[in-house]
Design brief:
Strand order of the largest sheet: 4-3-6-1-2-5
Shape: globular
CATH class of the largest domain: Alpha Beta
Radius of gyration: 19 Å
Structural class: alpha/beta
Bound molecules: flavin-adenine dinucleotide
Strand content: 25-35%
CATH architecture of the largest domain: 3-Layer(aba) Sandwich
Helix content: 10-25%
Oligomer: single chain
Largest sheet: 6 strands, antiparallel
CATH superfamily of the largest domain: Nucleotide-binding domain of ferredoxin-NADP reductase (FNR) module
Distance between the termini: 36 Å
CATH topology of the largest domain: Rossmann fold
Low-confidence stretches: 11-21
Order of helices and strands: HHEEEEEHEEHEHEEHEHE
Length: 259
């Protein structure tokens, strides 16, 4: 571990705070340092953090960050967008919501700034068996846990058929296209479809329409397919209703709602 990082984590969390009682919650907070900040689009950022030794999580889980802009602070959940690594780093992929307290505070962090967080938490993890096929459906930053899951499964040598359907609104909203396109080119068991609900570029040759349009046209019910959906509630509800009308059962559908 770098010297500067050792020194940062050597400091007590809250010097002088009483042990026990309410501080139990406080001592559950972990610390991480922002090491990299990348703009993926005009309103989506990717943040890379280095955290404490021994931090582990399962692909698909999220952390809950203390938004420390004012008293009292608030907490916001973010899916980890990177596959579990052994170097205590993790990435988040965050949409900066207009006027949003948490996402704007995170967007204003600089490299070397520190955050506190709880977790990892959540049961939205890859849990299908080799004979099953997997369909991932995401809109916007709902794709974050799927990048972690897909990279993790590919690294483990998983040969199951996996298909990611990713929807964003405009051309300018596209991100992680290169990453998923590369995984698909290198792994014949992984298929990637990107669809734009409102393409503005007349040269756009890819899919158009919402993820539900794509599903209506291209996806038939298969008993062995398990579906993972992530994003905002309205999308998840309409995708779930559509899948159920095609014969998918509750047991086949897994989701993570962001709002
Ligand atoms: C388990 C879980 C995991 C999450 N993971 C992520 C993640 O990886 N990346 C991420 O960007 N957000 C994620 N979120 C949403 C995140 O927790 C915050 O709700 C979001 O950042 C908005 O917080 P805010 O304080 O900036 O805005 P607020 O002032 O709380 O505004 C909330 C508004 O933002 C909308 N909103 C919330 N999330 C999004 C989004 N992702 N895209 C567009 N609009 C949104 C809500 O519908 C609501 O209208 C996750 C939420 C949960 C519950």
């Amino acid at each position: 571990m770098a010297k500067w990082l050792r020194q940062r984590f050597a400091k007590p969390l809250f010097p002088g705070s009483n042990p026990g009682g309410a501080s139990n919650f406080i001592t559950m907070l972990k610390k991480a340092i922002l090491t990299e900040k990348t703009a993926l689009t005009y309103d989506v950022i990717e943040l890379t953090f280095k955290t404490e030794e021994g931090f582990t999580y399962k692909a698909g889980q999220f952390i809950t960050i203390k938004i420390n802009d004012k008293v009292p602070p608030c907490f916001r959940a973010y899916s980890i967008a990177s596959k579990p690594a052994s170097d205590n780093t993790f990435k988040l992929c965050i949409k900066v919501v207009p006027e949003g307290r948490g996402s704007n505070w995170l967007n204003n962090l600089d490299v070397d700034n520190e955050i506190e967080f709880l977790g990892p938490s959540g049961n939205f993890i890859f849990s299908s068996t080799p004979e099953q096929e997997v369909l991932f459906i995401a809109t916007g930053t709902g794709v974050a846990p799927f990048l972690a899951m897909i990279e993790d499964e590919i690294e483990k040598g998983n040969k199951q058929k996996m298909h990611l359907l990713f929807g964003v609104r405009h051309n300018k909203d596209i991100f992680y296209n290169e990453e998923f396109t590369k995984i698909a080119a290198e792994n014949e068991n992984f298929r990637f479809d990107l669809t734009l609900s409102q393409p503005e570029d007349e040269n756009w040759k890819g899919h158009t329409g919402r993820v539900t349009n794509f599903l209506e046209q291209h996806i038939e019910h298969k008993e062995k397919t398990h579906v993972y959906i992530c994003g905002l509630k309205d999308m998840i509800d309409s995708v779930t209703n559509l899948l159920k009308s095609k014969g998918f059962t509750d047991e086949q559908i897994h989701f993570e709602k962001y709002d």
